[in-house]
Amino acid sequence: MNNKDISRNFLRALSDTIPHGILAVNKDGKIIVLNKVFSEILNLCEEEVLGKDIQEVVPRCQIRTVMTSGQARTRNLYKLNGRIFFADYFPLKNGEEIIGGVAVFEDITKVKKVETELQEVTAYKKILEAVLENAYEGIVIVDRDGKIIMFNGAYADFLGIKPEDAIGRHVTEIIENTRMHEVIKTGIAEIGQLQRIGKHNAVVQRLPIKINDQVVAGVGKIWFKDLRDMENLFKHLKSLQDELAYYKEELRRTQGGRYTIENIVGNSPHIRKLKDLIARAARSSSTVLILGESGTGKELVAHAIHNLSNRSHHPFVRINCAAIPENILESELFGYAEGAFTGAQRGGKIGKFELAHRGTIFLDEIGDMPFSMQAKLLRFLQEKELERLGENKTRHIDARVIAATNQDLPKKIKKGEFREDLYYRLQVMTLEVPPLRERKEDIPFLVNYFIEKFNREFGRLIRKVDSKVMETLLSYEWPGNVRQMENVIERAYNLTEGDCITLESLPLYLAEMSPRTPIKEGVSLSLLQAKDELEKNTIETILKEVQGNRSKAAKLLGITRASLYQKLKKYGLM
Ligand SMILES: Nc1ncnc2c1ncn2[C@@H]1O[C@H](COP(=O)(O)OP(=O)(O)OP(=O)(O)O)[C@@H](O)[C@H]1O
């Protein structure tokens, strides 16, 4: 090996120890030396590259430029095969003569990646800070040592400090009664907690932030600066819910059918008397007060009076004084003028009394009418006049008032909850709807009526109820009256597979009540049979009562003489 070869090998061995890519060219730009790192950068072996033109092997390389200018160029960015390099170019000189050039490539791909990530993180941090700053709630972020790393303006305002005074301090030094430092230790979130801060009972949330199951930070947030704010919000929500429930119920009612006197089922002396009073009430326009336990059929009676009266072609408007939220009751009843209050609809709103003009207004659950409204109602009853809220104009309204309650009004008067003058004004005519337990003879008729109704509604055909079922229904006391019974029948109806309702389909509280004396052990009584049996008994009782006077009996039974004759014939009572 000659001296020249020795020095070339030495040079190559030396350049291989350097972690950067090194490549040299002669004055013609042909590659004469490259180290291992450069071959690896080019992904070519030494033999494939040596003697080749530099531009061919490393395009966009600036060696030729520095060889022409004689000036080195460093820190140029060079991208190759998805990697990024700092490229330094130097001219090689022998005295003043340029005899070649050198390129040194340093791989900075990883550094670049870190730099890009850093830029992204900085951008995210700025976004996060902007979000925190614009948040309405007070927010604090602490690191795993409990030191505050972020603190927004809302929190700072609440505490009366500057955000920069809080940053870097331990959270316990800045926020009274905080537990953020505990949450970081326990890793357990604390949601909706009360925290005394100054004069306020704040409602707060404390969350640990975890990465790979390790707590790295904690976020504290003030939900409500004071418990009262939360209570007010809940109150507002509750009143909105009440309003919604009220309108839903109203919608259901307006879509419901119109009841007439024919829809009042039953033939007991009580019901006959009631129907008689309904007919009388329908002839006048006097105020009517309907009394009776819940579910006895008071609303049905109010409908019947209206539909039998000469107002039947005008509206029947129902208002449930107990269900309607107190804050909208007055405007619902009397209406309001445009701009009467914030949120009032344009053009104002017509009230229920006006809606019922020439028709009937039914004030259900009158016992629950707020005391403040009772005076206004009294004035309407006396003068039949009203003014919309926020308006001076007096309007004359011809609406007949029917009120109903299941409450003991005299007792409420004594307690100072109901106006005595209103009570007397209401009970021009009083109708009492008896509870079901006092007219059990109506039960088979009602059972039959409801089953037929469900047959029509559900398109099925149930014909009978087991005799034990009927007996159970007859012996129960029905605290919820007809509504409760209707619900029981509907439930049983839906549970029944065949055409006969049996004891198993009754609710447990009824089914477990063992009938004292079964009508006929184990025998099913068809609905028609049950009805016939009862009809026959009723006719016999009435005939006895009127000593056989068939005209009187027909009148009492509420049927024509002709139909009484038909029935007498049918039951062999002629
Ligand atoms: N004699 C009846 N004949 C047929 N259905 C009846 C009879 N009485 C009540 N109902 C039915 O029972 C249910 C309850 O009646 P209604 O709503 O009129 O009672 P209410 O006394 O006004 O109740 P509340 O006091 O709870 O307002 C309704 O479905 C009604 O159709």
TrEMBL record:
> What's an example GO BP annotation here?
regulation of DNA-templated transcription
Membrane is among the record's keywords: no
Domain PAS: residue ranges: 7-58, 124-175
The organism's taxonomy opens as:
Bacteria, Bacillati, Bacillota, Clostridia, Eubacteriales
Which species does the entry assign this protein to? Thermanaerosceptrum fracticalcis
Note the Gene3D superfamilies from the entry.
1.10.8.60, Homeodomain-like, P-loop containing nucleotide triphosphate hydrolases, PAS domain
What SUPFAM superfamilies is this protein classified in?
Homeodomain-like, P-loop containing nucleoside triphosphate hydrolases, PYP-like sensor domain (PAS domain)
* One matching Pfam family: PAS
CDD domains associated with the record:
AAA, PAS
The UniProt keyword set, sorted, is:
ATP-binding, Nucleotide-binding, Transcription, Transcription regulation
Name any one GO molecular function. Answer: ATP binding
Name listed for the protein in its UniProt record: PAS domain S-box protein
Start and end of every Sigma-54 factor interaction domain?
264-494
InterPro entries given in the database record: AAA+_ATPase, AAA_lid_NorR, Homeodomain-like_sf, HTH_Fis, P-loop_NTPase, PAS, PAS-like_dom_sf, PAS_fold
